[in-house]
Specification:
This protein is mainly α and 161 residues long. The chain has one domain. Helix content is 70%, strand content 0%. The protein contains eight helices and no strands. The protein has helices spanning 7-11, 14-19, 31-46, 51-76, 86-95, 103-119, 124-130, 133-157. The longest helix is centred in the middle third of the chain and has 26 residues, at 51-76. The termini are far apart. The model has no long low-confidence stretch (mean pLDDT 95).
């Protein structure tokens, strides 16, 4: 498998298919954003779960993600290949935990998550640079999701939404 797999190659490997976000990570432009958008579509359905089931699903997705992201990076020979977007899925799902499905939550959650993920303020940037393997691929998006959730909580607490 090359550094840039095709969709047919992804279909041959469940690990690669998941790591590449069911193909959304194959986007030639902004694969992280496209992967996050696909994760957002999935979130609309996941948001119907009760909070305990939702959090359980996200926890399992995180643990599975550490494995699949690490395995995909090893297979490609590239740490944190741009097409690996499972970490975006999980980070966005963390960001959107307990939010209602509304245009406001979608816009705010997606927008803030992408800002934190792209600009990687401290300590997100430190984690991204200093933690390796599957956990290293996942951790900056997990932190971006937590930062987004905290920011939305603060915005709500201040009565701005």
């Amino acid at each position: 498998m090359s550094n840039n797999p095709t969709f047919s190659e992804l279909l041959k490997s469940p690990v690669m298919l998941l790591a590449f976000g069911f193909g959304s990570g194959l986007s030639p432009k902004a694969p992280g954003t496209v992967g996050s958008l696909f994760g957002l579509v999935l979130w609309v359905f996941l948001a119907k779960l009760s909070l305990p089931f939702y959090l359980g699903f996200v926890t399992v997705s995180t643990l599975v993600g550490i494995y699949i992201c690490g395995a995909a990076a090893d297979r490609l020979g590239v740490h944190d290949h741009g097409g690996i977007v499972w970490d975006e899925f999980v980070g966005l799902w963390i960001a959107m935990a307990a939010l209602p499905v509304s245009w406001l939550s979608i816009t705010l959650g997606f927008g803030l998550f992408r800002l934190f993920d792209i600009f990687k303020p401290w300590p997100i940037r430190w984690m991204d640079k200093n933690i390796s393997g599957g956990l290293g691929i996942m951790i900056d998006d997990i932190a971006a999701g937590v930062a987004t959730a905290g920011s939305i909580g603060l915005i709500d607490l201040l009565g701005w939404i």
